[in-house]
Amino acid sequence: MLLPPLARAVCRPTLHHRLRPQHAYLSARVFTSSPLHRKDVHGQRPPTAQSAPSPGSKDAVQQTKAAQPAKPPTLLAEQTVTNKEQRKADWAIIKEMSHYLWPKDNYGTRFRVGLSVALLVSAKVLNVQVPFYFKNIVDSMNIDFAALGGTAWTVAGTMIVAYGATRIGATVFQEVRNAVFASVAQKAIRAVACRVYEHLLRLDQSFHLSRQTGGLTRAIDRGTKGISFLLTSMVFHVLPTILEISLVCGILTYNYGAKFALITGTTMLAYTAFTISTTAWRTKFRKQANAADNKAATVAVDSLINYEAVKYFNNEKFEVGRYDKALQNYEKASIKVATSLAFLNSGQNLIFSSALTAMMYLAADGVANGNLTVGDLVMVNQLVFQLSVPLNFLGSVYRELRQSLLDMETLFNLQKVELKVRDKPNAKPLLLSSGELKFENVTFGYRPDRPILKNLNLTIPAGKKIAIVGPSGCGKSTILRLLFRYYDVQEGRILIDGQDIRDVSLESLRKAIGVVPQDTPLFNDTIGHNIKYGNLEATDDQIIEAARRAHVHDTISSFPDGYNTMVGERGMMISGGEKQRLAVSRLILKDPPLLFFDEATSALDTHTEQALLSHINSILKEKKRTSVFVAHRLRTIYDSDMIIVLRAGSVAESGTHQQLIDRAGLYSELWSAQETLFAGADEKEVVEDEIKDPGQRK
Ligand SMILES: Nc1ncnc2c1ncn2[C@@H]1O[C@H](COP(=O)(O)OP(=O)(O)OP(=O)(O)O)[C@@H](O)[C@H]1O
Ligand SMILES: N[C@@H](CCC(=O)N[C@@H](CS)C(=O)NCC(=O)O)C(=O)O
């Protein structure tokens, strides 16, 4: 559908999933924009943005319920916000935006804004001239051409040209204004988005773990679209319309008396009141339609992603049933959206046309009395009629403006999320001498009611290879997260070469530590890029050398695209073992003094694992690095200088492999259990080899 110019400015492109509990931060759901859901049952744009229901209203509650199949983590507890508070928050946002419109030290932007306003006023002044020319043309035609002679050109030529020129001028001014203003809005969007993004990257792990990435990017997306909408609708719609109404009222009063202006003014008030109240009422249908649409999208995406599970259990019919139910709800809500739109449009038209009719009657009466000319009647009609164009979108603009304010509030609030882990003022860089790590009486829990580490004391001597082992969930990876300062300890302290890690700058701390995590975070880019991430300055040769040392170069070289192979989202297109070795290559490129390997070789086959470990060992020895290995497979760490056995958040025992075996404690128990398993596995391997190749092992 080709939208008229004004509609282009005020009708936002479809923001598909706009359901959001008011003031709840980000819904935890991942919304996927599926083309299946882009059109409604009539093939029209599906309902899009909505204004929020009045806080605490039934709508708000319904919406919140619909949006929260599982209670999403909310940054601020959902609050009941009064209208007054909401208005205050809205004004705060508008005030914040005004800094972008009138930036202190950016005269270029100020000039553009000033020029836009000048063009806006000029366009509207020209626009209200058009009916004047029309009136004069009509009046000048009201002669007896047969008796007086003359042509259209001699009688009204100049005015007809002026009529056309004024119309063209108004449009040109309007379009130039759009062009001049575009960069103001886009610059504001870019500045806000970058600021929020930078802040998000600095936020700690607990923040990121508690919300889904889709929610964050959506918040930025909606918030920035909100900025764009707010700025453009203000400059292109709200302000020009207010200006035009005022001009029209002024002209009517001046030329024809207060009666005309009174009718216009009252009509505008009634029209606005009706539009806003009806829009607020019908918004709930749009919310319902959106909720159903989201549900259908979620159901469809979920079952399409998990199509294997659907097939394993022959549940196609069940899934189609769920999808159909969501579509049914969408259908019902969409019908209500359409019918309520018809009601809104009819009501608006009734109010507007009644006023126009009354004014026509007054003008006709004036003509009959000889006070007004036919041209005046035409002019009154056209002046008022011109207003119908922007007013026709008033409801949509109101709805979108309210939604924009909410979206922007979410965005600006993201920026206000406090960093829990941050540098102390004037934090100094970490001074590494030998690389000794010490945990002193460390107590920590992700939640206060569940401590994970309890009064933990341990020392990791400089330049040694240390292993931390223990049952799953005992807090091994937590030690690493604390050291990396993803979280701060609740009690006690962590020292690196005698410096409390909370006193040194985060940048220097994280630079000093290298990690191969349990789950390698890979970017959806090439293998080369992912290795290079360890050191963005690395040359191709250094990348290849790192891959060689991580025992993955040959594998990469065997891929058709070599180092240019795309790894897929989160490395889904390469194997777990390859991923781990890429993580090791990255670490080798980073070359930090303190190294952590958290189950770094768990996905490798025994032979590759042994080869890689011996390589890592040689690097560690050669560079005298302090290293910590977290491992379940004790065979991979038995040669460590010290093995620390954790149990329930405290050190149960520590020592070398031999000391711990002699001690016959937890470690020795775990070792014997694994050895028995390994022995079993080895035997099985031998038997299988024999079956495949009898006589091979003779
Ligand atoms: N962000 C978090 N919020 C709440 N609890 C967490 C969080 N991360 C980990 N935990 C819990 O803390 C405990 C210790 O986790 P940790 O990852 O340190 O265990 P682990 O010893 O490394 O386990 P595994 O050997 O299975 O990797 C676990 O019970 C885990 O469920
Ligand atoms: N006259 C109405 C409707 C204007 C209109 O057609 N708006 C466009 C978007 S700019 C639309 O598609 N509306 C659909 C709807 O409101 O459900 C109003 O003032 O809101």
Automatic annotation (TrEMBL):
Keyword check for Cell membrane: no
State its location(s). Mitochondrion inner membrane
Protein name according to UniProt:
Iron-sulfur clusters transporter ATM1, mitochondrial
On whether ATP-binding is a keyword of this UniProt record, the answer is: yes
What residue stretch is flagged as signal peptide? none
Where's the ABC transmembrane type-1 domain?
115-403
Q: How does it sit in the membrane?
A: Multi-pass membrane protein
Enumerate composition-biased segments (Polar residues): 47-66
One GO CC term of this entry?
mitochondrial inner membrane
Q: Which residue ranges does the record assign to the ABC transporter domain?
A: 437-673
Q: Name one Pfam family in it.
A: ABC_tran
Task: Name the family the entry cites.
Answer: Belongs to the ABC transporter superfamily. ABCB family. Heavy Metal importer (TC 3.A.1.210) subfamily.
Q: By its UniProt entry, which CDD domains does this protein fall under?
A: ABC_6TM_ATM1_ABCB7 (cd18582), ABCC_ATM1_transporter (cd03253)
Self-association and partners: Homodimer.
Q: Which residues cross the membrane?
A: 113-134, 146-165, 227-254, 260-281
User: What are the coiled-coil residue ranges?
Assistant: none
Could you tell me the keywords of this UniProt record?
A: ATP-binding, Membrane, Nucleotide-binding, Translocase, Transmembrane, Transmembrane helix, Transport
Q: List the InterPro entries hit by this protein, alphabetically.
A: AAA+_ATPase (IPR003593), ABC1_TM_dom (IPR011527), ABC1_TM_sf (IPR036640), ABC_transporter-like_ATP-bd (IPR003439), ABC_transporter-like_CS (IPR017871), P-loop_NTPase (IPR027417), Type_1_exporter (IPR039421)
Q: Please, one GO biological process term?
A: iron-sulfur cluster export from the mitochondrion
Where are the residues of the annotated region Disordered? 37-72
Q: Chief location of this protein?
A: mitochondrion
